[in-house]
Structure formats: structure tokens, C-alpha cells
Amino acid sequence: MSVHSLIRTVSVGLTLLGSAAAWASPAYPGVIRTELNLATEPGCNACHQGGNVGFGTVTTPFGQSLRTRGLVAANEGSLRTALSALLSERVDSDGDGTPDTDELVAGRDPNVGDSGEPVDVLPDVTYGCGAAPGAPVGLLLGGLLLLNARRRATRRR
Question: pTM of this prediction?
């Protein structure tokens, strides 16, 4: 493998690694506010546990409810569709008897039950593309690019 090919492959891998934060969806709180006609935007903790935001970090029950109804990163249309499904199905992610959308309209956290304690956070997805948060995905893709480049260089010899 030439030095130029190696540099290019490493650059692509680092770009993918650095772009993980860009996969986050900063417009989502505003979309939720608009779609549900809320007084204020919900905090990132409605979907992301402990302020850990970015691709693959949706771990709260409310966030997982949105994901199972089609939510994908950086796609506002998928958020609108998922919110519509939550509304029509009257989903109650924390099991307190009040649908998530009603809790958001009332200014409450849809992950906190009547006891005032957050319900258990669902485990991260352990299958498919959602299994790894952004940084490991970038490293994996960079590694695959490097492996592919090495194989092509070996075949040319």
C-alpha cells in the first residue's frame, strides 16, 4: 500500500469518526415543540440519558418509544411520524397511566412516573447498525476501508 493510499484511508476514517456528532439531531426539540404545540422545547434528556447526546445514544423509554415507531437520526419527517404514532396510540413509556404526549404538553418528563423517579433506562440496542454509538461506527468504517485498501495493494503485487 502506498503512503498516499494509507493517508487517504486514515483521513476517511477520521472524518467518519469526527462526523459522529454531526449525526445528532439538534432540531428535534423544536420539532417536538411545534408538533405538540408545547409552551417550551423539551430538554435533550427526554430522549438522551444523562446529557449523552449524539448518534446512537437514545436510551430513555420515551426515546426508545419514538425509535420503535420509526424515528431515525437527522430526519425530521421520521420524528413527525413517530410523534403522530405516539399520539394516536396514546403510548405511556413510563407506565404511570398518562400518555407521553400529554405529559409533554403538561410540561412533565415522559420518563418520570408518578413516584417522581425516572423509570429504568432501556439498554442500548445490541443488534444492527444501532448497536454502536457514532465513534465506534467511524472507527469500524475506517478500519474496513484500511483493510480493503491493504487487500487491493496485496493483489497488485
Answer: 0.62
